[in-house]
Amino acid sequence: MTFGFALTAPAQDNPTSLSEAIDRSLEHATNSRIAEADKEAAEAAGGLLSSDYLPNINSSLTYTRSQYPQIVTPIREQGIFPPLDDQLYEANIQADWEIFDFGESRAMRQKTKVLADAANIQYELAKMETIEAAASAFIQLQQLRELKIVQEERIEALNTNKKQLESLHREGRVAKVDLLKMEDAIVEAETAIIATHNNIDEVLEKLSDDLGMEQKLSQEDISSLAFKNDYRFSPNQIPEESVPSVSAAHRQKQAADFEAKASYRAFLPQLNLFAAELLRAGGDLEIDDQWMVGIRLSIPLVAGKKIVNRQVKRKEAKSQKIMLEQTRQQYRQQLNKLTNAQYEAQKRIQSIQTRIEYLEETYRVENLSYHKGRATLTDLLTTESKLNSVRAELLAMRAQLRMLNLNIAVLTGQLNKEMAIKLAGGKQL
Description:
alpha+beta; single chain; Outer membrane efflux proteins (OEP); elongated; four-stranded antiparallel beta sheet; 4 strands
């Protein structure tokens, strides 16, 4: 009884490569599209036109008909009463320009700018996660493909052994119970391959959605990967503050600090320039033109809402500081966890390969012993089942190591398309 490792499945003329899948995923995946929209919204909020130091210009048109006549134009000469009319037409243009507020508006603008930076970091992180998801899907699919091949070869080998047992049973050399045990092993193997088929369908369904495909992809639509090398990715040493999660949290803290600063400056005076142009006429449409300019100093005296807002913003800034510390801790813990899991996976791969060699030899010896009547079929099937499980475990560990490499590259903010293709293929950078 033999088991092989035929690592590739039949493919169509132009199967989708991982490179093409990543490009399509970046275009269609919902998480990257949402992050891109958030980034654009944050950039718009932090644009130049959002500054409170730009003048505001408003205009209004009014028609009034009253029971009693009203003054059309103001008194301009002593002793001369202005004209009256029961119909008034007004056109008003007003400009208001805040020229000084002790930095309140500047702090709010700085807040929107750092929030835009945070949104941009989140967008880049979302793109890396999208790339990771596409690469992981290819890795999972390849693992399941190879597992399916191993399972099919097992079923084929068990059926071959079953035919041999049937021949021996007819000769009276083996008991009926041995045939039943073999049939049970075949049913178990067939059940396992059904589960593998279902897992393949689930991966293809999700990958099809991420790639924006109208119809679900088949196995033949996806190019194969090579599960040969077991490379362990070591990330470049970069400052902790530069990794995406910490960098975004740092900017969130900065935004909260700026907002708290603005809430304090709201208690200080504001200086504004204003101007207005008023066009007014009565029923006979004789237009009167009047302009005015001035300067206004606003001094807050009693502002309960501002006091509460100041307290709230200070607490929010404190909360963001704690969250930044928590993000740093989580990053260190996650990186340590992934690195340990990566090392463990590589060691388990080496251990599993040794076990496979041992179990293959054990099975060969027990198979010879069984045919000579020195071993039971139960012992033989137990060894065969262990061998099959260990081979499946080897495929799982190889896939896990590649996905751990991708996880670490995303966590440290280093993943890109080219790196993902190499890591998924087990190639050293």
